[in-house]
Amino acid sequence: MRFLFIAFELVSFQLMFAQHQKQPSAAEIKLKLNKLNFLGSVLYVAAHPDDENTRAIAFLANDRMAATAYLSMTRGDGGQNLIGSEIRDQLGLIRTQELLAARRIDGGQQFFTRANDFGFSKNAKETFEIWNKEEILSDVVKVIRQFQPDVILTRFPPDERAGHGHHTASAILAQEAFDLSNDATKYPTQVEDYGVWQVKRMYTNTGRWWNQTINENTPGILAVNVGGYNMLLGKSYAEIAADSRTQHKSQGFGSPGRRGDAMEFFEFVKGTPSTKDFFENVNTTWSRLKGTEKIQPLVDKVIAEYKYENPSASLSLLVQIRKEISALPFSVWRDRKLKEVNQLIQDCAGLYVEVVAGTYWGTSGESTTVNFEIINRSPAEVTMTGIHSDAILYDTTFSTVLKNNVPFVKKSTHSLAATLPYSSPYWLKEHHSIGLFTVNDPKMIGKPENDPAVVFNVRFVINGEAINIPAPLVYKWTDPVKGELMRPFEIVPPLFVNLTKPVYIFKNQDPQEVTVLLKATKDGLDGKIKLELPKGWKSVPTSIPIDLAKRGQEQSATFRVIASKDELNATLKAVAEINDKSYDYSLQLIEYDHIPMQTLMPKAEAEALRIDLKKEGSVVGYIRGAGDDVPGSLRNMGYEVWEMKNEEITAANLKKVDAVVLGVRTLNTNERIKFFMPELLDYVKEGGTLVVQYNTNTDFEIEKDKFAPYPITLSRDRVTEENSVVRILKPDHPALNYPNKITSKDFEGWVQERGLYFPSNWHENYDALLSCNDTGEPAKNGSLLITNYGLGHYVYTGLSFFRELPEGVPGSYRLFANLVSLGKPKQPMGNVKAKRKSK
Q1: CB 153 within 8 A of CB 42
Q2: Three-state SS string across 174-203, please?
Q3: What is the DSSP annotation of 408-440?
Q4: What is the pTM of this model?
Q5: Phi, psi of 342 (to 5 degrees)
Q6: Per-residue pLDDT tens over the stretch 264-314
Q7: In this structure, which of 61, 174, 210, 748 has its CB flanked by the most CB atoms within 10 Å?
Q8: Buried b (16+ CB within 10 A) or exposed e, 30-59
Q9: CA 615 from centroid of its chain's CA atoms
């Protein structure tokens, strides 16, 4: 039976392909040499990005020198976003990149399963039903067989102490996979590629939140001091961990660096227990592999003779080590150490290899220009003997001696292969279920992100040894403020087709404009664009010609769409036809400074709602919090939205709006809220309407008795079952009757949850309008509270409008319109000044 040990190396390579090349310092090279001498591995297992213990990972990777990886069940798709309005699939992509940024700092690697974070889950049973337990278990077993850890560490216990169904499930899956990974009858297709593997032992990284009394003397506990200081890196492991954890910026996890001893406690779960060390009775020397008798003394020698002022002096020994490793039989450790020594040879030679494209997008079959920059920054004997790329149909052989610090620069133009796949994230290429991503290529399962679209293999002879160095194709540019920036080169369709709204609301049969934005990624496109509409709908015209002569050119095509008379929740699609081929991919870009730019290519689709939606008022003031897309939904209803800056929230300006809405978590994130909340409450008192969306019950920027006219106590109460029954407590309340009549039907089709962080107690002046609960739990009546205050209306709601509105849930539009319309009809309260920002 032949085992293929290739995916591990690809996963490792992936972590750096979209980043700037960083030449390690002499001290960092010494750390890599030390790591070359240790053959032990640890897999840390939890549920989400930010669940991992970065102190433990930093310690294991940089002190114990272990090959250390984190397996996250999900990509964090169901969480909230503190830095922008992206949620669900887009947020999962952001959090994936934040994990990769964290691993680049703490020295770990990253794996995922296909599990989709569908939101908070209260028990593992629900989690497994939605994820499809067997599928995710197979993914966990695959990663174990692929990575072959000696030790598994779980972040959570396999019971309710974990505090989240996903957390509990991650521990259960890890324990079951521990037993299954060495059984050749389980998932036999995996066995053909990776073989079986028996993990030595498993521990749970016990948390203080479920065990307050644990210490180094607790029976069955392995206590580890992870607070040491690394002289080569110039930081403690806790400081490294803080930098790593701070990469989870979308979750607001900025962390302070700490110094001094830091104990972590690990509770024995399975396998062979140890008393002092994770690797007790595990052979972590080169002798764990057959045929390595010559390697151990060579590694010892290169470490002992390393010269900080001249790392290239180590090349001769490193080349000898590489020859010996290359001669070993295939195994995970053979490939892992070969990759390490290859990188050390490149580092010690100061060898810089970069291939830059003339543009960041390419289409299959077209020509693209590439620029090579290759430089040997050492006195070592380095000869470049050729360059090859399957993706760009390029293969050349030559012999060029690279003299010390003399760049090799070359520019050439070649055609991309005709069958290259689009570069959209692999787990988002197909429609997926609530709990499981669709991945058609089994070899991609576990990987954190796509392989590079185009890779050049540059061939060298260094000190007589032939070595290939892979170089992913990238695009670089210079920002006048940020300096040199980089993004991966990507394969895209020749044309992007973007509908300008995620949701279109048709209140009646009056024609409504639907605009499609077309963007060319190659020259010479002509054809037509049309809409695919629900049955009984029509567009005028039925199609519009496309005329895009140049790459990068854009064209706007506007249709007048007439809906049918029947209420409907359907999908509207845009499709371009060029040379008898159809193109229906849209373009979404995600850009933040702490992660590489991300490109998504979802289908060009939007929700089309034919609903009887009424509203009162015309101008809504919106004060943003953590980030959401509710302002866009309000505009969709027909409101003019003033997204008010802090300095614009004054008594005079508030008189110009019909209602004010606070974005999600405004009370948690806006440090100025305590100064302008009195103005907002006075606005209500004088006849205005204020709608406050959910906030967490911690980290307030305002005293907890100052954000409402009468006391409200927030809690962690939430209802996660999006189809749970909603009981109307006060059917005659105006908010449930005007201008739209709200019934139980309006709570059908909600996504992910009903709501979160509901108030648990409130003053008797509030009317609680709705009641709901998860299965087996008591009723929760705090999801929607309304009170009259003076002449106006104050609303506090934990309902997840920030999720429902962008998804086009009809009932959420009708109910939210009622909340904003409270106290109407009446004339608008004046005109807004021109300086107001409105989109």
Answers
A1: yes
A2: HHHHHHHCCCCCCCHHHHHHHCCCCCCEEE
A3: EEEEEEEEPPTTPPP-S-GGGSS---SSB---S
A4: 0.90
A5: -60, -45
A6: 999 999 999 998 899 999 999 999 999 999 999 999 999 999 999 999 999
A7: 174
A8: bbbbbbbbbbbbbbbbbbbbbbbbbbbbbb
A9: 36
